[in-house]
Amino acid sequence: MDRSGVSGFQYSTYSYKNSAKTDKKDKIFNDPVHGHISIPSYCVEFIDTPQFARLRDLKQLGTSYFVFPGASHNRFEHSLGVSHLAGKLVKKFMYTQPELELDSRDMKIVRLAGLCHDLGHGPFSHAFEDWMRSTGGSWHHEEMSQKLVKYLIDDNHLDYSHEDISFLLSLIS
């Protein structure tokens, strides 16, 4: 899929020349807030699924877009940024608090949780949840995000242990 220029992002496969830790399958996104961010290949596996692609069409600010058309960022952009910041936070903890014994698995699962935390949002964001409750229904995007993560992993045959999935889901709740 070509993602060039979609919603303010440029999507490319090049890697930084001086970054020995960048895998050839990592992707570089030009984020409007954070600049160029490297998204690891394990996140790209999730991003390149239909379940995640739907976030491109969901406005981060819901109905506010109708009043403030410049507020046009979407859940896709937001999720990439959250994953990026989650990775920076874990990396900082790894260096400043080694007693926590965080490792690459922790980094991976925390970044995936940041990436997938909003998968369960419906159209018009939280307004949809309010509408569902007003009609007697029940919709909580956190619960739906957990269901969609399990479905995404199963439907796309991604290889994750039960322990990793449980850890990921616990971070989303």
Brief summary:
With 173 residues, the chain is mainly alpha-helical. Helices cover 49% and strands 7% of the residues. The chain starts with 10 loop residues before the first strand and ends with a helix.
Note down, in words, how this protein is organized.
Helices cover 49% and strands 7% of the residues. With 173 residues, the chain is mostly helical. A three-stranded antiparallel β-sheet has the order 1-2-3. The radius of gyration is 17 Å and the shape is globular.
Helical amount: 40-55%
Counted beta strands: 3
Count of DSSP-assigned helices: 8
User: Pairing-aware structural class of the strands and helices?
Assistant: mainly alpha
Q: Give the distance, in angstroms, between the N- and C-terminal Cα atoms.
A: 31 Å
**Parts with pLDDT < 50 across at least 5 consecutive residues:** 1-20
| Biggest sheet: strand arrangement | 1-2-3
Major sheet description = 3 strands, antiparallel
Order of helices and strands: EEEHHHHHHHH
User: What is the radius of gyration computed over CA atoms, rounded to a whole number of angstroms?
Assistant: 17 Å
Average of the residue pLDDT scores = 82
Could you say which overall geometry the principal axes of the C-alpha atoms support? globular
* Percent strand: 5-15%
